[in-house]
Design goal:
Length: 755
C-alpha cells in the first residue's frame, strides 16, 4: 500500500481528477469523472471576488484547461465576466510558482526539499515551540480564498488536532465587521439578499462601495434594473460608481454614522417608518428614536460637509411611499474605527422601514473575496465551525458529536483577532506562525510593524502558490500550494450561493492542493484518525452539510457537487425538508419521475420575509453608539487624510496573481500612484506623473501623482495593490469586529527630491 504522500503525488500525474476523490481509500487513480469528458468543457466558479461568476473552461483531449469563456446560463453572471475572470487561467502558468517545498538553510537561503523533509520540519519545529512555550505559542493566519472544505479542514486540524488556540484570517481585514454587525443585530451572520435585488430596487444606496471597480458584474446587475432607480453613492471620492449614480454624497471620511443617524431622524419625522414591523419584529426602537433626535439636518450638514439640500433630497428619496429601498455597503464602512455601528446604522434604516425580506430591499453587505462567506461560517475563528458559539456548551457537544471528537478538545472561547495575534508575537507569547493563502507582509495595516515581528518568530511557515510574495520570501518553510483551477471544492458568494470550483489544470512540480497538504500535516502530526471522514473534498462537504443541519445556514438538502452545478448554484438555506418540498412540487408540475431538480429555476432566496430573526426572541435589535472622532486626524505636520482601496478592476489585492497576466498589466498602471486634488497639487508644484514623497508617522514611500478632482481637497487616495501603501497606514480597529481601519490616516505629501 503506497503512503498517503505517494498516492497524492502519483495522483497528480494521473488522470485529471482531484488528488483525493469521492471515497476513502479510492484516490481516483485511473478514473476520469464524466464531467471532464475529453475535449469538452467544465465549469468553475471564479476564484477572485465574491460575486461568484461561473466560468466555462474549455478542455483539451487530456481534460486540461486551454481557455475559458463566461458561463451564459449561470444566474449570477449571465454570460459576463470582468477582466480578472477572463484571465483566471494565466496566473497558474506563472514561472514563479512554488514547485517544491523550500526550507531556509544555515546560510539563510531558501532551498528545495522533498515533502517528507518539509513535513518532518513542520511538525518537529511547531511541536518543539509548543513544548517549550505552550500550545498557544503557535498560531495560524488563513484566508477567504480557498474552498470551504479546505478552510474547514484547516480550522478543525489546527484547533482540535494541533491544540492551536488562535486561528484568524484575512477575512478579519475584510468582512469581520459584517459578521459581527449581522450577528449582533439578527442573531446570526446572515446577509439577507439575492442579486435580483439589484434589479428590483427603486432606490439603491451604496455606502463605501465602488462596485464598478470591485464588483463589476454586480454593477452590471444594477444596470439591468428597469425601474428607473435612484442610485445614491456615499463616498468621499467621486469614484466610477459615484459618476454613474443619480446622486453622489461626498461626505467627509468617517462621517457616515452621523449622516445615517440624520437620515433615520428624517424618516421618523416624516412618518416613513413601519410601526407594525417595528412593534412585532424588533427591540430597542424607542431608545434609538430618542438617540437620533439630536442629529438634525443642520448638525449633519456641518459634520459631513454635505449640503442641506442633498441631505433632505436623500431623505425624500428613501422615504417615498411604496419605494423599495436597498442599502449596500463594502469596505468604506467595514474598514472604519466605528465600522460595526456604521453597518448597523444601515441595518437600522432597513428595519425601521420594514424594508427587509422583500424584493429590492435589505441592508446588504457585499462580500470581498471569493469565499469570505465560507470562512465566516467554517473558518473556526470567531464562530465555532458551522456558525456555532464557542461559549455555548451545547454547541460544543453537538459539534464534537458530528466531528466524532471529544467536546473537551473544543476551546470555550473564540480565537484572538489578527491584531491581537500579532501583539502576542510582539510580546514573545506566540513564537511560530503558519500563514496560508494570504500575504500579510503586504496587506496588514502598518506593515512596517509586521516586518519587525518577523525577527521575533522562531518559525514561520508560508503556504502559497508562489514563493515570491512579500510574506513567502520571509518564511523559514514554504509549502507549495495548488491554486484555483487545480482543485475541487465549494465557494459561497455574497448572496449565500454555494458554487463549485473544479480541477481543470495540474499544479506544477510537487505543489499539492491545500486539502492534501492539511491531510499530510495531520498525518505527520499524528492526528490523522480524527480526520478519517475527511477523505476527500467531496467527503468533507458531507461533514459540512452535517454541521449546517438545523443552523440558519442549513444546506443539508444539497446532494453533492453535481447537484449544485446542475442547479446553477444553490443559496442557503436549503435544508433537507426544503429539498423534499421543492422536489415534490416539481414532481407534481412535471408529472414524471424526476431524478434531480434545479432550485435556482424557481427559487430566489431572501432571508427574513417572515420577520423572524435568529435572536432568541426572534426580534432584530436596534444598536447604536455616538460618533467619535478619527483616531488619527490631520494636523499641520500631516495635513492630508490618506484613503486606500481598489485601484482598478484588473488588479487583485497584493498582485501575486493578477500581476502575472500581461493582459491585466496593460489595464492598470504598474507603479504605485497617489490621487491628489488639483487645488492641493498646485501649491505643491505637482502635476500628473511627478514623483511624490508620502510620509506618515509610521513610514514613508514614493508614488506617481495623479492630479484629479475625484478626490476632495485635503484628501489623497492610494490603491492597496502596492506594498508601499501599508507602510503608511495607522493601526486603528473597530472595537467590536477588530477590523483594521485602513481608509483614514494622516500623511504629508510633497514632491520627491531628485536622486
Ligand atoms: N478589482 C478588484 N476587485 C476586488 C478586489 C480587488 O483587490 N480588486 N478585492 C475584493 C475584496 S476582498 C473586497 S473586500 C472588495 C472591496 O470592495 P470595495 O469596498 O468596493 O472597494 P474599496 O476600494 O476598498 O473601498 C470602497 C470605497 O470606500 C470609500 N471610502 C473610504 N472611506 C470612506 C468613508 O469614510 N465613508 C464612505 N462612505 N466611503 C469611504 C473609498 O473611497 C472607496 O471608493 O473588493 C473585492 N473586489
Ligand atoms: N491599505 C489597505 N490594505 C488592505 C485593504 C485596503 O482596502 N487598504 N484591504 C484589505 C482586504 S479587504 C483584504 S481581503 C486583504 C487581502 O490581502 P491578502 O490576502 O494578503 O491579499 P492576496 O493578494 O489576495 O493574498 C492571497 C495570497 O494567497 C495566495 N493564494 C491564492 N490562491 C491560493 C490557494 O488556493 N492556496 C494557497 N495556499 N495560496 C493561494 C496568493 O498567491 C496570495 O499570495 O487586504 C487588506 N489590506
Ligand atoms: S466579477 Fe468577480 S467573480 Fe466575476 S469574473 Fe470578475 S473577479 Fe471573477
Ligand atoms: Mo477583502
Amino acid at each position: 500500500m503506497p503512503s498517503l504522500l505517494e498516492q497524492l503525488l502519483l495522483a497528480r500525474t494521473g488522470p485529471m481528477t482531484s488528488e483525493l476523490v469521492q471515497h476513502p481509500g479510492d484516490f481516483g487513480l485511473g478514473k476520469v469523472p464524466s464531467r471532464l469528458a475529453p475535449a469538452g468543457t467544465a465549469k468553475a466558479i471564479c476564484g477572485f471576488c465574491s460575486t461568484g461568476c461561473s466560468l466555462q473552461i474549455h478542455l483539451n483531449a487530456a481534460g486540461e484547461a486551454i481557455n475559458l469563456t463566461p458561463d451564459p446560463d449561470y444566474p449570477v453572471n449571465l454570460g459576463m465576466a470582468c477582466p480578472k475572470g477572463w484571465e483566471a487561467l494565466t496566473p497558474l502558468a506563472a514561472p514563479d510558482r512554488a514547485t517544491s517545498p523550500l526550507l531556509r538553510d544555515s546560510k539563510g537561503g531558501l532551498r528545495p526539499v522533498d515533502w517528507p523533509r518539509a513535513l518532518a520540519e513542520f511538525s518537529g519545529r511547531f511541536k518543539s515551540v509548543q513544548a517549550l512555550h505552550g500550545p498557544g505559542a503557535v498560531a495560524v493566519l488563513s484566508t477567504g480564498q480557498i474552498v470551504v472544505e479546505e478552510m474547514a479542514l484547516l480550522g478543525a486540524l489546527a484547533k482540535f488536532g494541533m491544540g492551536i488556540a488562535d486561528i484568524d484570517s484575512n477575512t478579519r481585514q475584510c468582512m469581520a465587521t459584517s459578521h459581527v454587525a449581522y450577528k449582533q443585530s439578527y442573531g446570526f451572520d446572515a446577509p439577507p439578499f439575492t442579486y435580483a435585488d439589484f434589479e428590483e430596487s427603486d432606490v439603491l444606496v451604496f455606502v463605501g462601495a465602488n462596485p464598478c471597480i470591485a464588483h463589476p458584474i454586480m454593477w452590471q446587475r444594477v444596470m439591468r434594473n428597469r425601474r428607473n432607480p435612484a442610485i445614491i453613492v456615499v463616498d468621499p471620492r467621486r469614484t466610477e460608481t459615484a459618476m454613474a449614480a443619480t446622486l453622489h454624497l461626498p461626505a467627509r471620511p468617517k462621517t457616515d454614522l452621523t449622516l445615517l443617524y440624520g437620515l433615520a431622524r428624517e424618516l421618523i419625522k416624516r412618518g416613513a417608518v413601519d410601526p407594525t414591523f417595528i412593534a412585532e419584529h424588533t427591540t430597542g426602537f424607542a431608545e434609538f428614536a430618542s438617540f437620533v433626535d439630536t442629529f438634525t439636518p443642520e448638525h449633519v450638514a456641518r459634520e459631513t460637509g454635505l449640503s442641506m439640500a442633498d441631505i433632505l433630497h436623500t431623505a425624500e428619496l428613501i422615504a417615498r411611499p411604496g419605494a423599495r429601498v436597498s442599502y449596500w455597503w463594502t469596505m468604506g464602512v467595514n474598514q472604519s474605527h466605528q465600522a460595526t455601528r456604521t453597518a448597523q446604522a444601515l441595518i437600522n434604516l432597513s428595519l425601521m422601514a420594514g424594508q427587509i425580506g422583500q424584493p429590492g430591499t435589505g441592508a446588504n453587505s457585499i462580500t470581498g473575496q471569493c469565499n469570505a462567506m465560507g470562512s465566516r461560517l467554517f473558518g473556526n475563528a470567531t464562530s465555532l465551525i458551522g456558525g456555532y458559539d464557542y461559549a455555548n456548551a451545547a454547541h460544543r457537544e453537538h459539534v464534537g458529536q458530528i466531528l466524532g471528537i471529544d467536546p473537551s478538545l473544543i476551546p470555550q472561547q473564540a480565537s484572538r483577532a489578527y491584531d491581537r495575534i500579532l501583539d502576542a508575537v510582539d510580546a514573545g507569547e506566540i513564537r511560530a506562525l503558519w500563514i496560508i493563502a494570504t500575504n500579510t507582509a503586504h496587506s496588514w495595516i502598518n506593515s512596517g510593524k509586521f516586518a519587525q515581528l518577523r525577527d521575533k518568530l522562531d518559525f514561520l511557515v508560508v503556504q502559497d502558490m508562489y514563493a515570491t510574495t512579500e510574506t513567502a520570501r520571509q518564511a523559514d518553510l514554504v509549502l507549495p500550494a495548488a491554486g484555483w483551477g487545480e482543485k475541487d471544492g465549494v465557494f459561497i458568494n455574497s448572496e449565500r450561493r454555494l458554487g463549485v470550483a473544479r480541477k481543470v489544470a495540474r499544479a506544477p512540480g510537487q505543489a499539492l492542493s491545500d486539502f492534501a497538504i492539511f491531510k499530510l500535516v495531520a498525518e505527520a502530526w499524528g492526528c490523522s484518525p480524527m480526520f478519517a471522514r475527511w477523505s476527500s473534498p467531496a467527503a468533507a462537504f458531507g461533514v459540512l452539510k452535517d454541521l449546517s443541519r438545523g443552523q440558519p445556514c442549513d444546506f443539508s438538502g444539497i446532494r453533492d457537487y453535481d447537484h449544485i452545478e446542475a442547479s446553477g448554484g444553490i443559496q442557503w438555506p436549503f435544508s433537507e425538508e426544503m429539498a423534499e418540498r421543492l422536489k415534490a412540487e416539481k414532481l407534481k408540475e412535471a408529472g414524471s419521475a424526476l431524478q434531480s431538480f434545479s432550485p435556482s429555476a424557481f427559487f430566489e432566496s431572501r432571508l427574513f420575509a417572515d420577520g423572524k430573526f435568529f435572536t432568541s426572541d426572534h426580534r432584530a435589535k436596534f444598536l447604536f453608539d455616538p460618533p467619535v472622532p478619527l483616531p488619527e486626524p490631520v494636523d499641520a505636520a500631516y495635513p492630508f487624510l490618506l484613503n486606500t482601496g481598489r485601484g482598478s478592476s484588473a488588479q487583485w489585492h497584493t498582485g501575486s496573481r493578477t500581476d502575472k497576466s500581461a493582459v491585466l498589466r496593460k489595464l492598470a498602471p504598474n507603479l504605485p500612484w497617489i490621487e491628489l486634488n488639483p487645488s492641493d497639487a498646485a501649491p505643491l508644484g505637482a502635476v500628473t506623473g511627478d514623483r511624490m514623497l508620502i510620509r506618515s508617522r509610521r513610514g514613508s514611500t514614493t508614488a506617481l501623482a495623479v492630479v484629479t478632482p475625484i478626490v476632495q481637497p485635503g484628501q489623497v487616495f492610494m490603491p492597496m495593490h502596492f506594498a508601499e501603501v501599508n507602510v503608511l497606514t495607522f493601526p486603528a480597529y473597530d472595537p467590536h469586529s477588530r477590523q483594521p481601519a485602513y481608509k483614514a490616516c494622516a500623511v504629508a505629501v510633497s514632491l520627491a527630491p531628485n536622486l
